[in-house]
Amino acid sequence: PTHTPFDASAACDAFVVERTPPPYTQQEAGDLLYFVWQPPPPETQVRLVLARAREFNALRADIVEPRGSNGLALPAGSIPFSGVIYWQLLLIHEGQVVCRVDGQFQKAAPAFADIFTTPTAAATSTAGVADAPTAGATPDG
User: Fold this and answer.
1) Single pTM value for the model
2) Local structure of 71: helix, strand or coil
3) Chain-centre distance of CA 63, in angstroms?
4) What are 59-65's contacts with CB under 8 Å, separation 24+?
5) Quick one: what percent of the chain has pLDDT higher than 90?
6) Burial classification of residue 126, based on how many CB atoms lie within 10 Å of its CB (0-12 exposed, 13-18 middle, 19 or more buried)
7) Residue 12 to residue 6: CA distance in whole angstroms
8) Which end of the chain is more exposed for a tag (fewer CB within 10 A), N or C?
């Protein structure tokens, strides 16, 4: 069989995001945040990155979805920070970002009593993601 080379442009065109948290809305700790997309090409995977402004390279929460996944429901209370939260859905092929879709929402600060009982997502310090999000699907490369 002939090997067809990966077409980044076609993969980005096929990466259609159908549902995300409404922009500029406040999410409470008990809310579920839905990120839903069309199934991406089988040789790619999707990564969700959440961060505060200007902190994409310093403090962020990463969730890498298994190949073939078409969405996730994330409890807002699992995000380890509050305020304006920027998100990016990254389509990745062989470790490289092919394209991204991004936006933002507001996460309410936890009530004082909830600080000790709210689970948190793992935060990692890694580089390689844009410092400032932009609107719409953006090919990277």
Assistant:
1) 0.70
2) strand
3) 7
4) 59/123, 59/125, 60/123, 60/124, 60/125, 60/126, 60/129, 61/121, 61/122, 61/123, 61/124, 62/122, 62/124, 62/126, 63/121
5) 30
6) exposed
7) 11
8) N
For the chain, the straight-line distance linking the first and the last C-alpha, in angstroms and rounded, comes to: 29
Residues 93 and 103: their CA atoms lie apart, in Å, by 22
In whole angstroms, what is the distance from residue 58 CA to residue 113 CA?
A: 28
Q: Which residues of 29-42 are buried (b: 16+ CB within 10 A; e: fewer)?
A: bebebebebeebbe
Angstrom distance (rounded) from CA 99 to CA 47: 11
Instruction: Give the span between the Cα atoms of 105 and 120, in whole angstroms.
Output: 18
Secondary structure class of 4 (helix, strand, coil): coil
Backbone phi and psi for residue 134, each to the nearest 5 degrees, phi listed first: -125, 160
Q: For 105-122, how does the pLDDT look when each residue is reduced to its tens digit (9 = 90+)?
A: 999 887 654 444 444 443
78 CB-contact burial (10 Å; exposed 0-12 / middle 13-18 / buried 19+): middle
Token pair listed for 100: 């991204």
